[in-house]
Amino acid sequence: MICETRRYRGGHRRRVHRTRRLFLVLLMAVLLLVSAIVLMRWLTAPPALSVIEPVQSAAQQEKDSASVSGEDQDSWQLLLVNAQYALPDDFTVELADVGGGHSVDARIAPELQAMLDACKSDGLSPLICSSYRTREIQQSLFDNKVQRLIAEGYAPDAAQAKAGTVVAVPGTSEHETGLAVDLVDENNQNLDETQEQTAVQQWMIAHSWEYGFVLRYPNGKSDVTGIIYEPWHYRYVGKEAAREIHETGLCLEEYLQTA
Ligand SMILES: [Zn+2]
Q: 168-180, pLDDT tens digit by residue?
């Protein structure tokens, strides 16, 4: 009896066990089937992908167009203005106030401010003494210079030519671009070569490139720039160009030729 009961119970347990195993196998099969169907739909169903794709491609396109036209977008930084390359008469620029009655191209204002702040935090006193100029202001500066030279005895033609090496001919001044500033040391505000020895200029010579600025009319480059050595006139060219110009010692004209 006992044995029979055990056998019966044993048989019952085996059947229960088999049923459970069958159920588990079926469950796994169903799960596999459902997974396979989901996977197949995901791989083949175009509607699901087409929802995602336009978003991706729009973002990608934006990214691509930014990298393709990256040079064009940055070309304003390398704008060449000199006696040979005058600004167009309809040139316009969006200005930003940088204090002290000065304004510059709004795109360079943050870097200019950061540079001045860093110089000040090193205990120095940089001062902007010239920034954006309208064509009219440049014209009157130029005319004044010509008049002073004539008063010194220069013939009018010679006075015009000489004035052009010190004050840019209207339309050819970087100050009309809003990309240039004249910076001096508060303790020496003379625009002459003594500026080079001031603590502010020494700091600028060492650090201005880190903010995208270069000394635009370096010593020994007057033949190329057409402008006398001006250890106070800083021009924004962007950080990459500023670093390269700083490292190579080229002036902007030379840099643009080799770029
Ligand atoms: Zn200047």
A: 899 999 999 999 9
